[in-house]
Amino acid sequence: MLSASVAEVHDFALTVRALVDHYPNERDVTASIADTLAELLADKAFTLPASHITAHPDHYVMYPLYVAPDGAFSIASAVWNVGQRTPVHGHETWGVVGIYSGVEREVRYAKPADGVVPERLGEHDWSPGEVTVCCTTDDDVHAVSCAGDLPCVGIHVYGANIGELRRRSYDADTGDVAWFVSPWATPATS
Ligand SMILES: [Fe+2]
Fold first, then answer.
1. Distance between terminal CA atoms of the chain?
2. How remote is the CA of residue 105 from the centroid of ligand 1, in Å?
3. How far apart are CA 157 and CA 155, in angstroms?
4. pLDDT at 1 over 50
5. DSSP readout, 47-90?
6. 185 domain residue, yes or no
7. What CATH number does residue 79 fall under?
8. Which phi and psi angles does 57 have, rounded to 5°?
9. Residue 50 domain flag
10. Residue 55 φ/ψ, nearest 5 degrees
């Protein structure tokens, strides 16, 4: 029998599937997913299992909550321990992020041409229940860190299998680009 949380993630994935299939452009699909993700996070009965919110001592992790069989989208639980951060990076697809617990600090950059130093646009702290469209393919560059003294957990929805997608990281000082894959973490066992 499914736990309530697993069932809710399953229902959320079905909704995302319908929205991805319905909307032909990234602006509409991300706006509609943001609305439904906000509803999920507002449900006080919704909890992620411990296996998907466990921080790694050395680096941030992304656990798969759902990966569409055709690769059209994926849903991740992303966990930053206190003090952990990403480099400046892109996604090469659209993305929607909602905060489950803790505070995520996002610094946004203009998407640079190759070899150009990324222009810093500003930063924002996202708190539990808040949802942001972090990325569209043409505006997808940021750096993320855990703010505060508790680990940060977010539910991230991307327009691809994010655990297998090649994407860019940027040297914030030189603009040098390195391609990377952020592979799925194996859910923790108790
Ligand atoms: Fe990101």
1. 20
2. 11
3. 7
4. no
5. ---GGGSPPPSSS-EEEEEEE-TTSS-EEEEEEE-TT-BPPEE-
6. no
7. 2.60.120.10
8. -65, -25
9. yes
10. -75, 150
Domain count, the chain: 1
**Six-digit token pair at 127?**
């708190």
Q: How far apart are CA 160 and CA 137, in angstroms?
A: 11
Q: How far is the CA of 142 from the centre of ligand 1 (A)?
A: 6
CA of 43 to the centre of ligand 1 (A): 25
- The secondary element (H helix, E strand) that includes residue 99 is strand 95-101
Q: How far is the CA of 140 from the centre of ligand 1 (A)?
A: 8
- pTM summary value: 0.95
pLDDT per position as a tens digit, 61-94: 999 999 999 999 999 999 999 999 999 999 999 9
- pLDDT bin (cut points 50, 70, 90) of residue 148 is confident
Range of the domain at 54: 4-180
In this predicted structure, what is the pLDDT of residue 190?
59
Q: How far is the CA of 11 from the centre of ligand 1 (A)?
A: 24
Mean pLDDT of all residues in the chain? 95
